[in-house]
Amino acid sequence: MSPLNSNSTYRLCIIGPLFGKKKGQVTTQSLILSELFTNEEFTVTSASDIQNVYLRLLDIVWTILSRTRKYDIVMLDIYSGRSMIVQYVVAMLAKLTGKKLIMFLHGGNLPVYSKEHPNTVKRLFKMADFIGAPSEYLAGFARNLGFKVSVIPNVIEMSDYNYIYREKVAPKLFWMRNFHPTWNPLMAIRVVDVLIKDYPDITLVMGGPDKGFRAECETLVKELNVRDHVSFPGFLDKEQKRKCFDNADIYLNTNKIDNTPLALIEASASGLPIVSTNVGGIPFLFKDSENAMLVESDDAVQMAGAVKRLIETPELANRLSENGRQFALTYSWENVMGQWKAVFDQLLTLKH
User: What is the pTM (predicted TM-score) of this model?
Assistant: First the structure.
């Protein structure tokens, strides 16, 4: 196979959390890329959709060793925490079997983890033939460790989202993440409490799977007496999510830690003006008052003020709606596919 032939079939082994096939799971980039590369008629081996970290490791090792003749390039997702065990094993197996190894950085907590375990992260990165990241935030972190890193955006299917240009916005808010302290859902509820005197018809839809924190959110809703204004539809499938984007006027992102949140890109694709905390990689992606409104972490009063500005300043909402859509287009498969092909060609040329 000539890697320089545009009609060649790339043979990939994608290793990461392949979640999203089962009901109630948020679709991961690993699964999205696996399906998109398959649609391009690449040869794709992938693992794993098993959630238990130890069983997932066994499944990954078996996949790598049993199908070693089926692929030339290993694409390995990099996260912090216990995932490092899996990532080390995969990287060593890729090197032992003579495969080219791509590492793609994920997770807003990776820089913090690296400060606590610098040698662990550096040893892992040294095994990579190519390191990519979905934003300058993680790319800059790895460059500061002395590694060359390229930014390749995450992917969304633009056809999954209806673009609605917001000429003016009402106090119809939408929040969508896991119910977990990291995503700080309590902040969104406090925003409603701050705004309800000025906007008695305010609504907030809070969608997403429960990670043990939804009960605390429901308790706060009762304590603040905003039960008629906040709803919890649970996990949203593709169609339900699209309807929520269509029906809302402002998207709230309250995260305390983040890298390249796909939900914000989805909201942008839908033309939904965003008010977000300025944590992690978010200020590397969004410019305040241009394609989002950025506020300090856990400052519900400031977030409420940004929401009020959007409601009372139609031209600001217009700008965010239009610029957000243009920003989201950079994450389309048509744009990202060519970047990945260039990486594959480079690695396969070096191999031969």
Answer: 0.86
CATH of 11-155+332-351, one of 3.40.50.2000, 3.20.20.80, 3.40.50.1820, 3.40.50.450: 3.40.50.2000
For residue 8, the 8-state DSSP code is P
- Residues 29-54 have a mean pLDDT of 93
Q: Which residues are registered as beta bridge partners of 12?
A: 44, 73
| Encoded tokens for 214 | 């939804």
CA 113/CA 120 separation, integer angstroms: 10
At residue 9, the pLDDT reads 80
Q: DSSP string of 34-76?
A: HHHHHHTT-EEEEE----SHHHHHHHHHHHHHHTGGG-SEEEE
In the chain, CATH 3.40.50.2000 covers: 11-155+332-351, 158-329
pLDDT of residue 88: 95
